[in-house]
Every structure is written in structure tokens, then in C-alpha cells.
Amino acid sequence: MTVYSDEIVCSPRAGTLYDVLELILDRGMVIDVFVRVSLVGIEILKIDARIVVASVDTYLRFAEACNRLDLEHDTRSKTVPELFGGPVSRTIGKAGAKRTARSLTDKVRDVLTPDDDEGDDDADSRTEDAPRPVRKRRSDDDRPRPRRRKAEEE
Amino acid sequence: MTATAALTTAGTLGTLYVYGIAPEGVQTPRAPGVDGAAVRLLTEDGLCAAVSDAPESVRARRRDLMAHQAVLGELAAQGPVLPMRFAVLTPDAESLRGQLRTDRAHLMSQLDGVRGCVEMNVKGTVVPGCFADLVRRDDTLRTLARRTRERPGYEANVRLGEALAKGVAREARGAARVVLAHLAPLAVRTAQGPVDDEQVLSTSFLVRSADEQRFRQAVAAQARDVGDRLALGVTGPLPCYSFVEAPSATAGR
């Protein structure tokens, strides 16, 4: 699993399998006479990530955070977790804010990389049975995340 | 997207899964291939292809994606390699050998193109935290925020939120351009990947192995500079997926 230190948001993240997924699937050489098997599930997974990004939920979250801003006085002391506050910052503080910052595509990443050690096969069922499983993640945003394990138990 | 096709050939006797092509003389990768199959090399005319028996069906399972990657990683550690896309099959060993002969010149020159190089992939995602600064700086947004407070409501919130989301993404895209301008000179070539409202930077860099550390340091420096707007991630060294081209124009991307 990628480890997030508590102090800084700005160090580059180490890559996960998700980060190279499009390279493995869409780049690389294909020679004419060879056959490439079509992989349907993956496309759906990607599209799903895209849709959620532009969701009303995201907008409302922005608006809510903005409505808590002091517009008249320039108080720059506020930290990111406070601004993106609510349950996230109360329960897991900085790490939570960072997760918000890393945001939605990471949810998909998580689906594909349940653990960086011995991860078994859950990308399988995810990609094959497509849209259903990925749906849930929005509502999970605010929780510390025990939910990842669910995938393995299925 | 890419070619769909003939699932019927998968699992037929003789069908091979192809990982990549390297110059003759590399050692056989020890990592298990897709579906756990043993990987072997087919050598022809100065080139060799890493293959394994094709599984009954190829699916983008986590384990198999990792296997594909691991086999290529072993080859890449030994020298230049032309990585195939995931899930490429050849009907049998003979067609593959024939292809290696026919395309020899092209494949050799492609190998030269990536020799001594690795692919580094840099992605940048929007950091929403900067929106507070943005509201203070941007008159339009501030006005919108005030108006939303005066006349709150669902619609108003959605409108405000959308404007903020767009503003934040715009900031991130600006930062992405800066990052790109700083990193590109360190690379031999670059290849842009798909971007969207959330992931605004996705670019692969063909970097000389000798420059890998320098490149990483540059990414880290950029990450610090733009961290309030853009979260950077770097993956690599990778086989040069983004810097190989198929022999005929109709095949590749």
C-alpha cells in the first residue's frame, strides 16, 4: 500500500498498478497479424471514474466548504483539512484531507490495488462484472475505509 | 479503442500470448506469465519474442496484468525491449517467427530507439484545497460565493460548486503546463496520455537510464512547487510502452 506521510501533501506519489493500467492496456506494440483480445470491463471502469469526477456531489462539497470560508477577512491561516472539513477532518484529520485531495480516481485505483503485497484476483470480478461494484465508492468518501476488504471476501 | 477480436483463437492449441520482443541473447524471464504459464523465448534472425501458452481466455485480471508487467520488467533489465500491449496473441509460433523475419528491420530500429532508456510516467491530479485562495483572488468567484450566501439553495450551491471545481481544475491545468515545461527537457521524448477534469496531467517520458535519478529529483522539486494546486505521482522505470510503434501504420494506436 502506498504510505502517506502526515506532513506534506506535495511529495510525489509512488505509482500503483492503476497508474500504469492505461499504459499496459492502451500503449505497447500491436502487430498486424496478431490478435488482440478485447477487454470490455476495463473500459467501463475508466468511464465510470470519469463520470463521478464531474458529479453534483463534488460540486456540493465545494460549495459547502466555500460557504464556511470567511470571505470578508483574508484569513489564510486555515488549513486544507479544516476547509474540506466535516466528518473527514474530524475523524482522520490531515490524512483525510489528503485523501479528498487525491480524490476520486484513487477509488478506482483502490479497486485494482487492494494491497500492494500479495493481492489476489479481485480486479477480475471487478472488471468482468463491471458497472455495479464501482458505483459505491462515492458514499465511502467520508469513512476511514474498512470497505476495501469487502472485495476480497466476495 | 483498440482492435477487438477473434476470441475463438484464444485457447486453441498453439496460440501464444506475446509479451515483448528483445534482441537475441537475452535470458528467459523466470517470472510466471499470464495465467501462471511458463515464459519461453522464440528466437528468429537476431530477435526473440517472449511468449507463453495462451490461457483459455484473457482477462484484465490484476494478477495477469502484473505478470505481463513482471515478464517485461525482467527483459527490460537486460536491455532494450519492445513491450506488447496486454492481451496480444499470435495464432502459433510459426506466424510469430514469420512476423519477426518480415519486420526485422523495423523492430531492430525500434529497439535502438529505446536502448538505454526507460519510461517514466507522471500523473497529476487536481488538488481542491487551493480553492480558498482562488475565491479570494478571483472576483467572479467571490461574487458568486457572496450571492450564494445571500440566497442559499440547492441550485445556487451546485452552481457555486461547479464554478469552484472548474476554477480549481484550471489552476491545476496551469500547473501541469509548468511541470511539463520543466520535465520535458530531461527526456528524449514525451508521449501524452489521456487527461480529464480530475487527472490533468498524464505524460510519459522516455528517459535515459542514467538520468532517471535526475528526473525523479526534478519531479520532486516540481511536486513541491505546485503541490497546492496539483498532486504529482511518478511511476517507473517502466518498459517503454509509449515509445514503440507497430510495423504498419494500421496496427498501433
TrEMBL record, chain A:
InterPro entries named in the record: Gas-vesicle_GvpA-like, Gas_vesicle_GvpA, GvpA, GvpA-like_CS
Single annotated GO MF: structural molecule activity
Record's keyword terms, sorted: Gas vesicle
This protein's GO CC annotations: gas vesicle shell; vesicle membrane
Start-end of Acidic residues biased regions: 113-123
Record family assignment: Belongs to the gas vesicle GvpA family.
Function: Gas vesicles are hollow, gas filled proteinaceous nanostructures found in some microorganisms. During planktonic growth they allow positioning of the organism at a favorable depth for light or nutrient acquisition. GvpA forms the protein shell.
HAMAP family (UniProt xref): Gas_vesicle_A (MF_00576)
Protein name listed in UniProt: Gas vesicle protein A
Species of provenance: Streptomyces viridochromogenes (strain DSM 40736 / JCM 4977 / BCRC 1201 / Tue 494)
